[in-house]
């Protein structure tokens, strides 16, 4: 038996820290792979020495092979010599990482593996040194590192005493603390968290390395993809790279700082997801600690800029599910440019919604009207060629105001304004009380009400009135009401035939059908409107004819 070393890390305090910093259950495997990556980078730095030109074609390589009863991890990195074990492995497995700013900055990352391992065999060799055989395992409250002779390595693991590279590297054989490892779960976890390694990584015989862009493009739900690589102008050594995209299903930014997933610490915008690589940012378990990092503000600034680019790219060709997200983002940024091409706005008289760009291009009068709810003035303005925005939310109206403020040649007015009433051609208008109607007008009004009630199937559901004042149309509609113009030709012609009620109803049918179609369809004079109008008109005419024939038959029988 070789030298025994007791590692002075209290198991109880370590378990709390491991759970706190390395919450993922399989984080220990990620840490072993990260250590392997760091060891390769250390070797690459060491061969920059001019005296070691023979290794200038060196290519780093990591492999991980998963078996139910053990897992093997190999690298051709710098390895360890026996005399260095106390300095590196036992002193938290590589205290020099902080100085070199390696991605694996976790002092106790190696020991995270003991969440699911009872012992690890380590076969390692430093260039120019002898191969070292170790067994590391927990005992009582402490860890023990036992230096072994080759013959003390279990026979089934002897094949793994051969290193990937002659003269240097490390092999690890990890033994489970249960009967077997859940290798399917570990395999999935390592693909997710280690796919962006710079060093080639082979997992169960297959390369899993990807670029950020490749990984983001693999998800068919990702859109408006932005790839970036930014350098801090103050310090060229500080760099952030990555790839972000928009995905409706997500509700926060998913940023991977190497293998550590940061979810709630940074979230510049909802529905943006992706991956980032930022060597200089310390990964810590709380936002308060994170903001103490001197590079944090550069990190957030770049990430926010990239989120802006994603949203701008999304606004160029948005889908229906994107509209609200773009509107919300524009409100947050106080920047309407995100919604210029988004069809958010309803126009009186149109079924489809329009974008701000469409509306601005269509305004010939340089006046844009708005109406919270459609009304008579809005309808009249529309008929006279004006554009009226209606049925908008508070956020939509806020963005509209921001846009119009920057359009100095456009006047933005409410339909309640005096200018709107004047341009709509509306004078004062009054509903004539039933008691003030002539007997002929009263008869016609009752016939109109009877027709509307029969068609709607409910008495008084749609109220019918005769109005006087500024003549706009023979009849008009506002939600829940039909107005018949007292000075209109139709009403005055109907007065001449009131002794023929059926004829009066046939005469009124096109007018009533037209206004009922407005009530039920809530739209104005498009193709669909006229299709519904035709159906309503035929139905009313058939009803009148049927009643007329019934009355005629009754009259004949009396004779």
In DSSP terms, counting alpha (H) and pi (I) runs of 4 or more, how many helices? 16
The CATH H-level superfamily of the largest domain is: Histidine kinase-like ATPase, C-terminal domain
**Would you tell me the overall average pLDDT?**
81
CATH topology of the largest domain: Heat Shock Protein 90
**Beta-strand share of residues:** 15-25%
Uncertain stretches: 92-107, 257-265
Q: Into which percent range does the helicity of residues fall?
A: 25-40%
Number of domains: 4
Gap between N and C termini, in Å? 130 Å
What's the total count of β strands?
A: 23
Helix and strand composition category: alpha+beta
What's the level 1 CATH class of the largest domain? Alpha Beta
Spatial order of strands in the largest sheet: 1-6-5-4-7-3-2-8-9
Shape: elongated
* CA gyration radius, whole angstroms: 39 Å
Largest sheet: 9 strands, mixed
- CATH level-two architecture of the largest domain: 2-Layer Sandwich
Structure description:
This protein has 559 residues and is of the alpha+beta class. It folds into 4 domains: 4-207, Histidine kinase-like ATPase, C-terminal domain (Heat Shock Protein 90), CATH 3.30.565; 212-312, 2-Layer Sandwich (Ribosomal Protein S5, domain 2); 324-424, Rossmann fold (3-Layer(aba) Sandwich), CATH 3.40.50; 431-556, Zincin-like (2-Layer Sandwich), CATH 3.30.2010. Helices cover 36% and strands 21% of the residues. The protein contains 16 helices and 23 strands. The chain has helices at residues 11-21, 27-46, 97-100, 183-194, 212-218, 287-290, 296-316, 323-333, 356-362, 376-383, 394-405, 418-424, 439-456, 489-495, 501-521, 527-558; strands spanning 4-7, 62-66, 71-75, 117-125, 132-139, 142-148, 169-176, 201-203, 206-207, 223-231, 239-246, 255-257, 260-262, 272-277, 345-347, 353-354, 367-371, 387-390, 411-414, 429-431, 463-469, 475-478, 481-485. β2 and β3 (71-75) form a beta hairpin. The longest helix is centred in the last third of the chain and has 32 residues, at 527-558. The termini are far apart. The model is unreliable at 92-107 and 257-265 (pLDDT under 50).
